[in-house]
Amino acid sequence: MRVLLAIHHPLSQDLGAPGVTLALGRALQAQGCTVDYYGYGDAFPGEQHHTALHNLRFPWKLSAHLARVARRYDVLDVTTGDAWPWARAGRPGAARRHALVTRSHGLEHTVSEQLRADAREGKARLSWKYPLYNGGFRLWEVAQSLRLADHAVLLNEADAAYARERLRVAASKLSIIPHGLGEAFQGLPLPEPLAEGPLRLATVGTFIQRKGREDVIAAAGRLHALGVAFTLTLYGTGTPEPEVRAAFPPSVQPHLRVVPGYAHATLPGLLAREEVLLFPSHAEGYGMALVEAMASGLVPVSTPVGVAPSVVHPGHTGLLVPVGDVDALVAAVRALAADPLQRYALRREAQARVQGLTWPDIAARTRGLYEGLLDARTAGSK
């Protein structure tokens, strides 16, 4: 089976959605598929810095590429919002027997609704340009791609429900297939109880409002004021350390460590001395950082977004708090700080819960989906 995986990002193992795309491709190759990729490096060769304009142009670049090469592939698996010009033009150049799959790494509509809700409550600021593209035309593009594709792959039930109920995509055209854990996160040793000392908190993800930045800052200040001894390390902020530190109260800054970036495969080693993951995200398609931190032996304190409701079971594998509820976030951390035995038990259970999320299994499910779609198209052409 010949597969093209296309995504509106530079292809890099150390980036979220692109890293997942490469991992899926390798796993499909291990299943016997031939896999090619198309990303920003192909659409915009030689360009190192990308803006919203590149995202706007990408569907047209991709469509021109597909018109030239689509006949080589059985399956065209393309991120949402990107294949609609080609599909609306009648899929020029495609083989008679082929399948067009659109893949969401987090449905833009649900993210947009949460962002608008945060803005109404004064928790986020939206640029005047937001409704023009990300909060406007881009949402139309995504809806078009969902309706025009043969099938859509989503990451969580909330996104699937939105596609069914709000975008009127038939349930038969939707599948929920999660991400898998990379090899670096599989078979890690059980976490050892840490020596007495401050509670070791960590975040993993970019230092932006959607990831709960303001909630983490406020919670850290309150925990310090309440006399909770802790350290907080922020991994993968994508923001320089001085800027991150300056966002926290001066009293908290001595307890911070900032790691703006890291090689993805080194994350388990970085997290080996941490205990609790703060994951107060306001919107997620999946939340790979959550699953990877659990696999590394951290107990999560998470909002119920993305994959969290499926893997974070309160009192068993972690704790859930409402989106934007700093009081609940502080209370959860205090409870974990006060009970080391329960904290360690939750760490062990969290790690065990995600061990079954492997790329070979995800690739087998994905290939099965592809084969079913191709068989259906064959039957429909008879």
UniProtKB/TrEMBL annotation:
Top-rank lineage group of the source organism: Bacteria
UniProt keyword Metal-binding, yes or no: no
UniProt feature coiled coil, ranges: none
Record SUPFAM superfamilies: UDP-Glycosyltransferase/glycogen phosphorylase
Keywords: Glycosyltransferase, Transferase
Pfam families to which the protein is assigned, alphabetical: Glyco_trans_1_4 (PF13692), Glyco_transf_4 (PF13439)
All residue ranges annotated as the Glycosyltransferase subfamily 4-like N-terminal domain in the record: 20-180
PANTHER family xref list: D-INOSITOL 3-PHOSPHATE GLYCOSYLTRANSFERASE, GLYCOSYLTRANSFERASE
Protein name: Glycosyltransferase
Organism listed in the record: Corallococcus praedator
